[in-house]
Amino acid sequence: MEYLANRRKRGSTSDGNIVAMLSLKLLLLAFFILLSTMSSFEEKRSRAVLESVATTFQGHVAAIRSLDNPTAGLGQLENAPSLVDRLKSLFRQTLPVVEMEESPTGNALRLEVPAESVFVAGSARLAPGRGVLLDRLARILNGEDGPEAAYELQLLHSVRGSGTGVAGELAVRRGGVMARRLGDLGVAEDSLSIALWPRASEGARDGLIAFEILLDVPPRTAGELPAKAPEARP
């Protein structure tokens, strides 16, 4: 009897140990299931956050379709300065203009400036900053996407008498410098002419350079002379 009682006691103890072991394993299994679930949740949440950030900062904006004609496609913008106005503004800002004339139709502009404001005194070397002036002049005439209008640029150097002698030679050299510089800047050869401007006698208008710009001129055939410039006043 005592033997059976001891055996039942050992069996009861063994069963308790098995139950405890199973309970521990179930707890561990539940713990690992919880960790796996949390890991999957965090991964999905992280992916969702990353997708949201990428969508927000990708920079794509839905295009707005409109059948209206763009303003710039209808010609010159309203209140935008004309070609002649831009030319006048350029010279007023950079040179002491002695005389400025504009034709009634607005397609011809004549500006007279002191030669010594364009060149170093007594030489054919451009004065500081005058290369920039010619560059801006060429850019205005040629435009960003091609000339706004067909044009001719005539440069007249005033000289006394027939233009012979040292003063005449200097004027010719200066004209050559300007012609080469403007040609390098894209002014077409058939749109540019250089000439002397003879003066009958000595006066206040000696030592001038006249810029004559003619707009909307018809194309010239080979060998044809430039369009007649406005008459220079004595």
UniProtKB/TrEMBL annotation:
Transmembrane feature ranges: 18-37
Superkingdom to which the source organism belongs: Bacteria
Keywords attached to this entry: Membrane, Transmembrane, Transmembrane helix
Protein name: Motility protein B-like N-terminal domain-containing protein
Species for this entry: Ferruginivarius sediminum
Upper classification of the organism: Bacteria, Pseudomonadati, Pseudomonadota, Alphaproteobacteria, Rhodospirillales
